[in-house]
Design brief:
The complex is a heterodimer of chains A (341) and B (330). Chain A folds into two domains: 235 residues, Aminopeptidase (3-Layer(aba) Sandwich), CATH 3.40.630; 83 residues, Beta Barrel (Elongation Factor Tu (Ef-tu), domain 3), CATH 2.40.30. Chain A is 27% helix and 24% strand. Chain A is of the alpha+beta class and 341 residues long. Chain B has two domains: 228 residues, Aminopeptidase (3-Layer(aba) Sandwich); 81 residues, Beta Barrel (Elongation Factor Tu (Ef-tu), domain 3), CATH 2.40.30.40. In chain B, the strands form three sheets. Chain B has an eight-stranded mixed sheet with strand order 1-2-12-3-13-16-14-15. A six-stranded antiparallel sheet of chain B has the order 5-4-9-6-7-8. In chain B, strand 4 and strand 5 form a beta hairpin. The chains are: A alpha+beta (341), B alpha+beta (330).
Chain lengths: 341, 330
Amino acid sequence: MINYLRDLSELKGPSGKEKEVRDYIKKKLEEKNIKYEEDFFGNLYVHKKGKNKIGLTVGVFAHMDEVGVIVTGYTSEGFLRIKPIGGVDSEILPGTEIVFLNGVKGVVSAIPPHKKENVKYKFSDIIVDIGAYNRDEAKQKVPLGTEGVFDTKFEKIGNKIYKGKAFDDRTGSSVMLSIILDEEILFDTTFVFTCQEETGLVGAKIASKRVNFDLAFILEGTFAFEPYHPEEEYYPKMGRGPVVTKMDRSLIVDEVMINYIQKAAEKFNIPFQWKIPLTGATDGGMVTLTNRGVKTCVIAIPCRYIHSKASLLYEDDLINAKKLLLKTMEVIYGENFKGIM
Amino acid sequence: MEKILRELCETFGPSGFEHGVRKKIKELLKNKNFEIIEDRFGNLIFYNKGEKPSLAFTAHIDEIGIVCIDADRRGFLKCSPLGGVYPHLYTGHRVIFRNGVIGVFSGKDWRKEEIKKFNEVLIDIGASSKEEALKMVPVGEPAVIYSSFVMQDNKIIARNLDNRAGVSLLLDIMLESEEFERDLYFVFNVQEEVGLRGAKVFSEYLEADFVFTIDVSSSGDTYSEPERAFGLGKGAGIRVMDRGTIFPVKLVSYLEKLAEKESIKVQRDAGSYGMTDAFYIQTAKSGIPSIALTIPVRYTHSPSSFILMDDLREVNKLIRAIIKEPPSIE
């Protein structure tokens, strides 16, 4: 599974331009002769057969896109002006490397400490240096509207700890891909790789109207405890197992689902942690509002420093997220989908 | 109606945890001949087959509340809001969790400084360590303000008149009438306070020609200079505009004519804040003509919402008149 993440993490897929990611997934599916569907919007659907037939449509979602930037202008000296795609904090950009979809690389300009006096970076203060000498050259190298993402190598930096970018949500995508390619499942399930989550859950909105789901699982990469946050605040921690959302800005997870997940975790001894973020939304918020209400839950992999140039991840969290999803499905099947219809 | 309203107000049911309210409604209506439609999101609909046009009356059954998210070392709980909770209005009040644990909504130095943000809020349940606190109230446990229901003369005071007042109106009409000739849907929807989520779900499958949403609306009469004309004691509100919706002109004039004919006291309700379920109903499918009938309320989303029985009666009369004489379809 970590190999899928290795490949997926380094691909460029800002919201709306998920092609590289989609092509990689398609290639992997084709290698194993697995059929898929693609809608006009770019969402990818895999209907995987399970050992048993059930009368319900079960969906598993992960989004392919990541946050990024888009070129909105040029300076006469040949620097690029940019704006965010999804939640990118302008203050963490200076000094980072950006790679544009056409392969051109650049560095976000940063004021050295000798000169910096209480400067706060807003997007209007940020320029990207691609080594161009003037406006025309810059325009020609990176046309207006070209998207870019962080340029980060995927690496192992500690015992079971990996560094990379776009862990939101390439972690979820790699868990899903590994279930499709390498696992047997209990019942027929539709796996959906969605587009444009970071810019407003758009892909999920389309996908959940195309297929009438009864039950949905969302696989996400979520933020984990960051060292500078006070300890008593409630944050998921890296290395303590997958994160199960009870409630976020878009979704109150039904008790029935909470109980199933808890039961699976206890029965199969899988570590997990609860999360009740004040902020943030997932594809689940869209999916749950369709088809007379879809019972929806979110299982996420806690990653430090998400939405930044480099995030960290603990390998076991990824493995346990997959396990928790599969075992929850098993428990639900065992109890004959009680409370879900 | 008084008895039903009291029972509803005393039932626990913040957004996402409306189970008790649903149960109460079903219990009250168990002897009535409605077809029951329940969706997986938690919306509860009662249908009576009859003459077209088909009318729907909706009222959300959830209330605002808080949810425990963690505890600190000293045993104070941390919490997040369910819907529009203003910490400074809750400070010093008691809260009751679903499992019965009661605590005080407090925060650092709250007597001197107003608590504005939820990360400053501490719920004191009398625990002395983090472990003890989370054993008493696990993460994710919801709570509401712990307050009593007051009905005295013409006034009613309760924490959750938004929107148990609306729910009680529908129940009263459903219980009092022997049989309806009209094609009617009575919709009790969930999760309004966290973003009209229940309405988004049911409005995609509801087969009604007109939808009337019953909800409370803040009065503008508690300031020395009235903020807007809408106020207590002036009768049923006919919503003309709010932050999310501009209501159909035809329905506004239909209601005003109807009220005049039946001598029902009505007032126009217009403002640029607040939203009702009609926001999603109006834009569902190819557009469903819908309007909000409002009950004027003071101090909404505080521990003591305040309405008048007189206003409630006028809204009740208006709903009955609509069923008798519905708007025409063309």
